[in-house]
Amino acid sequence: MEPRFNLLANDLGAKIAKRIYNVALAIVDSPLPQATQNLVMLRASQINGCGFCVDYHTKDATAAGEDQTRLHLVAAWHESTVFTDAERAALALTEEGTRIADTRQPVSEQTWNRVREHYDDAQIAALVSLIAMINANNRLNVIVRNPGGAYQPGQFADMAN
């Protein structure tokens, strides 16, 4: 499978990608736990069917030391015992925030209240921004058909600044 279009080979596409990457760096540097960030990015990418991002975030999480059992169970987190209550709240917000067109009230008060129980304001700012950004990245990659399988951890490190 070949991509329809290489965003990074285009001057404007590369400029936009670099800015998106720098937003991602601000989130990485936030007080939201890295393990939670990895789980959120993987779950949204699974929902959106983004093979490139599933590959990317699974490999980055593995490189960061994430347990393989947890990665294998992200898609079935509702029926799994390996996630903390805080991670479960973040995954619930991820699912509801990703599937916003599926219901009149995309993010339930129950989910929001669970998030508020486990995260402070800075962490919530990072979590909400992360959900928005991974959904944007998923859409970019799905639209241009970037395939999964070839990502190497750290391959975009030179995009910073």
Automatic annotation (TrEMBL):
Keywords: Oxidoreductase, Peroxidase. Residues 17-96 form the Carboxymuconolactone decarboxylase-like domain. InterPro entries: AhpD-like, AhpD_core, CMD-like. The keyword Nucleotide-binding does not apply. This is Alkylhydroperoxidase. Coiled coil: none annotated. GO terms for molecular function: peroxiredoxin activity. It holds the Pfam family CMD.
